[in-house]
């Protein structure tokens, strides 16, 4: 694997702080499991966070602060502990950031351990998706996308962030060429149209934190059908 496209610093810090949606955290964890460079950067971010916490001065709190906190914990709804466990950076470090048989463990837990087991839904000929049960924000998605050689996504930009991790094949867009292990970490200022340039289907793991913004009429027409 020759990874050229990495996570933004802001994405790594947000992941280290546990401040991401479950959908974004899954893609981030999967890239980290494939990328020694970002594993090292994450360890550095976490160490910096620890130093900042150690240097905070103690603040006065009210007498009932502890009871208020305990009440909040009791009221916390069950968000699906099993799903959260596999993407939480601090509690399951050893397993979250591992990679085996062509697939990150954090993703394998959702799809029976292999891309061969995935049940795909067709959007148009040559373009398929499989939704994952991870929580996203503001109408975003958490899904696998499979696109045949020579096919392109419709041109689009974003209302928020989009993370795309390549698991098989490759694509090119306005930013560059993305192969296995690369991650496209895009914000709302980028418009792009990925074109699959490998001779096998390109399979990506995608998370967005808001619906995409399609710039063509065709894109706007198919958007309700695709859930993007
Ligand atoms: Zn990386």
From TrEMBL:
| One Pfam short name | Cupin_7
Classification via InterPro entries: Anti-sigma_ChrR, Anti_sigma_zinc_sf, ChrR-like_cupin_dom, RmlC-like_jellyroll, RmlC_Cupin_sf
Membrane-spanning regions, if any? none
Q: Which domain of life does the UniProt lineage start with? A: Bacteria
Which ranges carry the ChrR-like cupin domain? 115-208
Q: What is this protein called?
A: ChrR family anti-sigma-E factor
* Species annotation: Neptuniibacter pectenicola
């Amino acid at each position: 694997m020759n990874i050229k496209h990495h996570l933004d610093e802001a994405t790594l810090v947000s992941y280290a702080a546990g401040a991401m949606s479950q959908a974004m955290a899954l893609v981030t964890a999967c890239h980290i499991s494939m990328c020694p460079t970002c594993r090292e950067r994450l360890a550095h971010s976490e160490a910096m966070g620890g130093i900042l916490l150690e240097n905070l001065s103690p603040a006065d709190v009210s007498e009932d602060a502890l009871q208020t906190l305990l009440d909040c914990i009791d009221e916390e709804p069950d968000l699906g502990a099993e799903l959260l466990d596999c993407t939480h950076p601090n509690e399951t470090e050893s397993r979250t950031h591992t990679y085996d048989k062509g697939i990150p463990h954090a993703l394998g837990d959702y799809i029976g351990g292999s891309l061969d087991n995935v049940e795909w839904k067709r959007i148009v000929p040559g373009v398929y998706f499989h939704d994952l049960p991870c929580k996203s924000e503001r109408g975003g998605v958490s899904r696998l996308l499979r696109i045949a050689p020579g096919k392109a996504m419709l041109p689009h930009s974003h209302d928020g962030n989009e993370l795309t991790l390549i698991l098989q094949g490759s694509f090119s867009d306005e930013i560059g060429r993305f192969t296995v292990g690369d991650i496209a970490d895009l914000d709302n200022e980028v418009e792009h149209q990925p074109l699959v340039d490998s001779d096998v289907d390109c399979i990506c793991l995608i998370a967005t934190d808001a619906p995409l913004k399609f710039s063509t009429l065709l894109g706007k027409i198919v958007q309700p059908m695709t859930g993007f």
